[in-house]
Amino acid sequence: MKRKMVTIDGNEAAAYVAHRINEVIAIYPITPSSPMGEWADEWASKGVKNIWGTIPSVTEMQSEGGASGAVHGALQSGALTTTFTASQGLLLMIPNMYKIAGELTSTVFHVSARSLACQALSIFGDHSDVMATRQTGFALLASNNVQEVMDFALIAQAATLESRVPFLHFFDGFRTSHEVLKVEQLTEEDMRAMIDDELVHAHRARALKPENPFIRGTAQNPDVYFQGREAVNPFYQKTPDIVQNVMDKFAGIVGRQYHLFDYMGHPEAERVIVLMGSGAEAVHETVEYLAERGEKVGVIKVRLYRPFSIKHFIKALPETVKNIAVLDRTKEPGSAGEPLYLDIVNAFVEAQSEGELPFAFPKIAGGRYGLSSKEFTPAMIKGIFDELKKEKPKNHFTIGIIDDVTHTSLDYDRNFSIEPPDVFRGMFYGLGADGTVGANKNSIKIIGEETDNYAQGYFVYDSKKSGAITISHLRFGKKPIRSTYLINSPSFIACHQFVFLEKFNILEKAREGATFLLNSPYSREEVWDKLPKVIQEEIINKKLKFYVIDAYDVAKKTGMGVRINTIMQTCFFAISGVLPKEEAIQKIKDTIKKTYGKKGDQIVQMNFNAVDQTLAHLHKVEVPGKVTSDRDLKPPVPKEAPEFVKDVTATIIAGKGDELPVSKMPVDGTFPSGTTKFEKRNIALEVPIWDADICIQCNKCALICPHSVIRPKVYDGKLLENAPPTFKAVKARGKGWPEGYMYTLQVAVEDCTGCELCIEFCPVKDKKEAGRKAINMAPQMPIREQEIENWEFFLKLPEYDRKKLRVETVKDSQFLEPLFEFSGACAGCGETPYVKLATQLFGDRMIVANATGCSSIYGGNLPTTPWTFNKEGYGPAWSNSLFEDNAEFGLGFRLTIDKHNEQAKELVYKLKEKIGEELADAIINAKQVDEADIAEQRDRVEELKKKLKSLNGDPDVKNLLSLADYLVKKSVWIMGGDGWAYDIGYGGLDHVMASGRNVNILVLDTEVYSNTGGQMSKATPLGAVAKFAAGGKPLAKKDLALKALTYGNVYVARVAMGASDAQTVRAFIEAERYDGPSIIIAYSPCIAHGYNLKYGAEHQKLAVISGQWPLIRYNPELIKEGKNPFMLDSKEPSAPVSEFMDVETRFKMVQKIDATRAKAFLEEAQKIVKKNWLKYEHLSKMEY
Amino acid sequence: MDLKTKYLGLELKNPVVPSASPLSADVDTVKKMEDSGAAAVVMYSLFEEQIVHEQEELDAFLSQGTDTFAEALSYFPKPDEFHNLQAEDYLEQIRRLKEAVDIPIIGSLNGVSAGGWIDYAKKIEDAGADALELNIYYIPTDPEMTAEKVEEMYIEDLKRVKNSVSIPVAVKLGPYFTAFANMAKKLDMAGADGLVVFNRFYQPDIDPETLDVKHDLEFSTSYELRLPLRWIAILYGNIKASMAATTGIHTAEDVLKAVMAGADAAMTASALLQKGVEHISRILTDLQKWMEVHEYESIEQMKGSMSLKSLAEPAAYMRANYMKTLQSIR
Asked: How far is A1109 from chain B (nearest CA, A)?
């Protein structure tokens, strides 16, 4: 039977099969497995049926713990059930996995294997998560490439039904889950042939059912638990043979033969590598290369890792084997070796002791590779094989890093390459926003699905969400592609953004004679002289063919705006020669029709037009024979940066982090604060310019700025003497400033993302020209140099005395120095203005527990991090524990602080005489409410520390010295998104609120899981389209504020900065001053809402005036005064909800899918608004 | 009594036609219009901006932020297709109306550039519209834009539409032409089956407090009929195209005036928005009563009876008329 060839990624391959052979699917988003759940949900919403003709029921849960519970329940009640997860999510499933396995329940979990959070979180791939489930009793089956993912998803299901042992089917996160590869698609007939309905019926027959009542899940005692545990043995003993039989059956039907351990290589191999996962593909490819050249090498690909069959393993090895390297993609600190290594060693020991080893006991070395998607290349593999040649190969080695501390790493020849010349290898450098990746995915589809060529695509993304760089790696060739590593000698390089040339040597890897395509604002005649020196050298030395196009110009002329994807794709086909030009262009057009057709023919026509216009604007550059440029690449960080930043951070920024040796890394994940300021990204084409003449100095622009690039300052005018010539200053407006004080609003133009929120939020209109504001956008390039000078001067001006500011006002709050700056958040982010505000108000005594999510990523993702400190060296201390435990993590901070504060006070009391009674009393009795109080206490504590230092010997003195800082009030902040607060962390959040302890909870409510790509949470409003709610969310948003205020002693605020900045600032201050739990739920516009985020503040206003987001505060302090603690801060809704819902794509999309449903949503949403308003109004009128 | 009239070659049972307004977005309302006696219905306008921008907007916002960050390669689910793009919905509404009522349905296409929106003329025809009203709403803000170019653009648009459809096409336009009669003639020559005079441009207002430009909807008054009245009277008999008066038609008397000036149809929206579509039946009852009292037998009889050509004193519609008005004030 001829099966369809498709180019898909691993996640889609797994979901494709899983959706068709299950009845119930419980899901929860986590990178990199989220797309599997998204596919299943999307297919379910489109009516895609399983092989039994029914649409699987797909349900999103509140956590992976919840998903595994629901899976367990669905399995116990007889449904064929699956789930998809990774990393921390898989860890949360472990308790249920023991249960599911203990009860011998057939199921397959599909896992895109990912690193675990240890010294740091990592979203990338290794086997740490899977290895943590070895002991659960699940069978572990590894797929090494996208084809195997599809095949093994089916094999696992057939095997679990027969063996009754549950299966965890895994493949490498990103390398396989996100690699696009041409594969043969299994048909539904294949699935029907593989799945035995009798076994499905048997599964159902074991289900809990009142018609067949029994009890499962008893409590057992010392007398029988042990025997019960052993009762499963026969099932595990049979499983390897069952899996092999299923694999043989699969081979009969589909034609691809797999074995529990697949050997490939020289038939008389002496050196063999044993491993599993995508790395096995690279080893396969390298072994082929080396064996062809006579080297006696081979590889064992471990498919079924649990139950581990020693018999099958030993049988798979060539009898000539002398040296084995067992590679683990995980680390188990303190163990005698990593898991696969130990299993292999044990296999040999047992085989030998049983007399079943048919050859001499080989030397076995264990090694670690590829943690967190670290590259694993043929050069490294060759290095391992070379090591195995040695008399005494290094054991417990690492490969791919330089370990200069414990010297585990193997050295290898970095220039060794096996990339065949007949494989096209292209690297494409683009910006996230320019559509490069999307275009490349289309190109892969064209070449993979419409020609005989095999195709592979892998995409490397940025760690920042704004101005993000993407690098696409594309391979095309006549043979299947097993190169599971990045391209290192491209024959084609495309640079879609001219500015990248200033940042990196993107031609460093180009092979001689390669083609270089550049999107350039300069013509073919002008461009040469605009290139940096190193680029010119590369082009000349490597004899590159050099083409330019002004893609932005073509895009502008054809109505494409900034999306140059189609244009650059056309150029690629025109000059790469991968396909005949005419044919390629027709295929691009066909793809455009397919991709954009559903969005309307206008978009199709526009893209067609862009294709047609492209060729006329694409030119070959005549390369001069000599270098004419003397410009070098910019250094990644300035010379003034601290040593660590210059040494480590700069290397990471330059894209050379792989070269950092172990000794350069902090041993426990501790990094310095305040490093974003050294990474000048210059990503905004236009930046705000202050118009001092018409500015009213309200500071709203600074408040709303998501990246803290707009800073106001009031200072003594005398300091302007040495100001740079273009530095702007005007007399400070308003009462209370000392005579001669000046005001400046300075923009950090190199750090601005150009989002324009400030412009839209500025309340001033020029009386002479109403279209102008007190802050206006202007091109960055012409003013960059002068503004760099101005910014540096501005930073040197002293901060105004915090004690003298009325920080509860919007204006004065912005004179406080932000201690969160230049984060990697999206341009126009709605969350970061709140985070920044908190650091302005409390940053110098703040400790932050940050739930995993957008805020932990823009707040803590390397290379540089935005949490910083002031001139005195005080600033927020920040940490991220997990996603689910953040409230508890933060409460832990509070417990420590309170304990240490208490202990310090006890010691102060005890040492009163030595310290001096007056100081001791003042310290113990200090009220620390406002800025002045806290500053005074800080002075007292400094005085105390001085005194203590002068007293020696006494252990109490030393003890107090180490605790003295806790005498200054600390501000504990627990921050995270709605996914954390409403869903996965809600249990903990609730408990922490009920604890009565003084913590401040900030919920950055974007109404979806933003960081993983917009999945529905319980915060998602009714009628909004989100992933897992493809047809619009049918139920209302959970009212977290209302739930919180039922405790009565919790300070609660619901704020929206863009709608009422004054209420926001007030709420932050009240929440922090309240000596008990506080929660602020902050409306945060997000890219997942579907509108231009520069209008974020306007949308917040609409949310409030339509009653969708009523502003409230509940301050328990007021009860003491006999007042109603509930304050309804917004007015009765004055606009229909439709006015709000009509302007956001997340709501509007429903109209485009199903107008009747959209209408019903709108009516229901209006009813909810009305009902909520009545409820709040009632609360606000209650008498106390 | 014979109220019949012929507009765009369509036989209408009377001259009262609801003009383009949001009222036609609801099938039941259009049924009520028919029940109240409306002779035909001009649908709400399909705007060029809707066709183009809606698609562009959807494309832009759905792809915003995609393929940028490893954890979030997209932010929205991907529906197979979008069914209810406003343009598609418009065509669907034509089909629904054609099924629901027997009176002619006139589609309305509002645009200005030479873009892809013109293709929608054909789609409107295919959806079943009996005729098409081409509403060219253009404010020539560019000082480099000459009157000739503006006029050429109108003619070109019309020609493109005429070339793509076989149903009758009316052009609805504003009065701001230096030589309106000549413009009307050119459109007539270019194949316009009818002229609808005049489009009511919503004039922006300024809010001095907020320094914002405000847009709000002000209903027309009967007084505003004077401008179309004059030009219909002037054009009557000079062009082949049929004519409809619009702006200021509120009462039976307004309809009478329009017909007497030479209009084949009298179009009303403000009155229906204010008083409900049932108002049509009052207009028709009043119209018949008036005709009875004044012993008119048919609409055809009075059509153009007060046109420039028919008057003993043609100067009434010319400059002299202005002089006279001034004198009467004194």
From this structure: 22
Indicate whether this complex's ipTM tops 0.85: yes
Tell me if A452 sits within 8 A of A813, measured CB to CB: no
Q: Is B72 on the interface with A (CB under 8 A)?
A: yes
Residues A375 and A394 in one domain: yes
pLDDT at B210 over 90: no
Please check the confidence at residue A823 and state whether its pLDDT lies above 90: yes
Alpha-carbon gap: B54 to the closest alpha carbon of chain A (Å): 9
pLDDT of residue B85: 74
Residues B152-199 pLDDT 10s: 999 999 999 999 999 999 999 999 999 999 999 999 999 999 999 998
Query: If DSSP codes are grouped into helix, strand and coil, which group holds residue A522?
Result: coil
Query: Do A1028 and A962 share a structural domain?
Result: no
A1026 contacts B55? CB cut-off 8 A: no
All residues of chain A having their beta carbon less than 8 Å from the beta carbon of residue B67 are 432, 435-438, 441, 459, 470
Shared domain for A246 and A269, answered yes or no, is: no
On whether both A25 and A132 belong to a single domain, the answer is yes
Do residue A189 and residue A265 come from a single domain?
A: no
Tell me the per-residue pLDDT of A884-925, one tens digit each, with 9 for 90 and over.
999 999 999 999 999 999 999 999 999 999 999 999 999 999
Same domain, A34 and A152: yes
Domain membership flag for residue A60: yes
Residue A430 pLDDT class (50, 70, 90 cuts): very high
Listed by start position, the domains of chain B span 5-329
**One domain, residues A370 and A439:** no
CATH (residue range B5-329):
3.20.20.70
Of chain B residues 32-51, which have a CB less than 8 A from chain A?
51
Q: Which residues have CB under 8 Å from B180's CB, separation 6+? A: B231
Partner residue opposite A1011 with nearest CB, options B72, B79, B81: B72
Query: In this structure, what token pair is assigned to residue A992?
Result: 């922490």
A249 neighbors A118 (Cβ within 8 angstroms):
no
Contact across the interface for B83 and A1154, Cβ inside 8 Å: yes
Q: What is the CA radius of gyration of chain B?
A: 22
Which among A11, A31, A133, A864 is annotated as catalytic? A31
Catalytic residue (one of A64, A285, A679, A888): A64
The answer to whether residue B314 scores a pLDDT higher than 60 is yes
Q: CB distance A1087–B64 less than 8 Å?
A: yes
* Torsion (CA) A906, A910, A912, A915 in degrees, nearest 10: -90
d(C-alpha A1078, C-alpha A887), whole Å:
12
d(CA A1112, CA A17): 48
Tell me, yes or no, if A297 comes closer than 8 A to chain B by beta carbon: no
**Number of structural domains, chain A?**
6
Rounded to a whole number of angstroms, the distance from the CA of A97 to the nearest CA of chain B is 26
A901 is catalytic: no
Chain A interface includes B113 (CB < 8 A):
no
The CATH number of the domain holding residue A526 is 3.40.920.10
- A917 lies in the same domain as A1016: no
Sheet with A710-716, edge to edge strand ranges: A710-716, A741-747, A730-731
- DSSP symbols for A201-237: HHHHHTS--TTS----S----TTTHHHHHHTTHHHHH
Q: Which domain holds residue A45?
A: 5-253
Q: Known catalytic residue: A64?
A: yes
- Are residues B77 and A45, on separate chains, in Cβ contact within 8 Å? yes
Minimal CA separation from A1021 to chain B, in Å: 15
- The answer as to whether A1000 is a domain residue is no
A912 within domain boundaries: yes
Q: Tell me: the pLDDT tens digits for A1029-1083?
A: 988 999 999 999 999 999 999 999 999 999 999 999 999 999 999 999 999 999 9
Q: Examine the fold and report which residue of A223, A253, A283 is the final residue of a domain before the chain moves on.
A: A253
Asked, for residue A184, whether it belongs to a domain, the answer is yes
Higher pLDDT, B110 or A1174: A1174
Distance CA A172, CA A174 (A): 6
Annotation says A595 is catalytic: no
Which chain B residue is nearest to residue A597, measuring alpha carbons? B81
